[in-house]
Amino acid sequence: MKLFLLFLFLSFILPTWGHNFPGKADQKILGSNEQAKNFTLPYYDTQSKKFNLKENYPASNLVFVFFASWCSHCQKDIPGIDSIKDKYPGTKFIAVNAMETADEIKAFFKKFNLSLPCLMDEKGDVIKLYGITGIPAFLVLNKSGEQLMLGNFSIVELESLLKNLRFQKPGKGDTSRPEEEGCHDGICPIPKF
To answer: What is the pLDDT of residues 89-135, one digit of tens each?
Structure first.
């Protein structure tokens, strides 16, 4: 009987315990008047080197993709972002890892042969700063540091925004993502600690 109850707990209760299942309503497309909130984070591979947001925009448009190695959609989307980054001159793509160690990030980047720059948000400070409740999530900023998009979008939706804003040359391919266990509307929730 104890084994049966443990099975029920692990099968039905544990997968949803402490999770917020954000949906399409959590997506935000912001007007071009809202300035991005500044932050500084270390790069995962050279933690002595830091990225400061305000020091990086007027140089380029910025696309941040928030992820974690355990997130099934992130495992599909991060390689997809890595493969499209060169199609958008004038736009810098930066991965932001959600609350994992440098070793976990390094293993993820090695497994998927990724070359994106990646920042470490070990304590989730930037995730909290921007109100991100599920990953993968995108934050798109123009060269003036204005927020153009913040939320949980597919790569297809991201590319549509980039094309419409005339950041780059048009690309092809459907990179939408199917549903996975533990995820809702293409979003894997960030566990509450």
So the answer is: 888 999 999 999 999 999 999 999 999 999 999 999 999 999 999 99
Query: 50: Cβ–Cβ under 8 A, 6 or more apart, which residues?
Result: 40, 41, 42, 43
pLDDT at residue number 103: 95
Confirm if 128 and 41 have CB atoms less than 8 A apart. no
137-141 and 91-98 as β-strands: parallel, antiparallel, unpaired?
Answer: unpaired
Q: Are 140 and 155 in contact (CB under 8 A)?
A: no
Task: State pLDDT tens for residues 131-179.
Answer: 999 999 999 988 888 888 888 888 888 888 787 665 433 333 333 444 4
Distance CA 90, CA 100 (A): 29
Nearest to 37 by CA among 120, 141, 153: 141
φ, ψ dihedrals at 131, nearest 5°: 70, 30
Record the tokens describing residue 109, joined without a space.
Answer: 């980047």
Q: Which DSSP letter does residue 35 get?
A: B
Q: What is the DSSP string of 73-111?
A: HHHHHHHHHHHHGGGSTTEEEEEEEES--HHHHHHHHHH
DSSP helix/strand/coil, 174:
coil
Q: What residues pair up with 95 in beta bridges, in sequence order?
A: 65, 118
